[in-house]
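Open question from group meeting: does this chain pack into something compact, or does most of it stay loose? Before anyone orders reagents, we agreed to write out a predicted structure and look at it together. Recording both the input and the output here so the notebook holds the full record.
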Amino acid sequence: MRKSYAMDMKMSFRLLFAAVLAPLGVLGMGMPDASALGPKDEQDAARRAMLDGRVMPFAIIKRRVEREMGDATYLGSEFHEHSNRYRLKYVRDGRVVWVDVDGRTGEIAGWAR
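C-alpha cells returned:
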C-alpha cells in the first residue's frame, strides 16, 4: 500500500511542477519584432516610437528616400522596432530595391536588390 502512495505523490508532484512552470515558460518567451506581428501592430509600434522621440516621422523619412530613388515606384515599408529602422520597398527598372533607413537620423543605412 505504501508503494502506491509514493507513486501517487510522485505523480502529483510532477503535475504541480508542470503547472507552475508552464506559465513561466510562456512569460519567458520574448515578443516578436513588430514587423512579425502584422501591419497594425507594426504601425502602432512605429507611432509609439515616433511619439517617444526615438524616430523621425515617417513622412519626412519617406520624402528623403524618394529624393534618392528618383523615378522608382514606392511599394511599402516595414518598421523594425528593436533597431528603430525602416525598410522601404521600391521597384526601379523592373527590379525590387529595399532601402534601410535609420529612423533616428533619417539617413540611408543600406541598400539591397
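Observations to bring back to the group:
The beta strands are 73-80, 85-92, 95-102, 108-112.
The longest helix spans residues 2-28.
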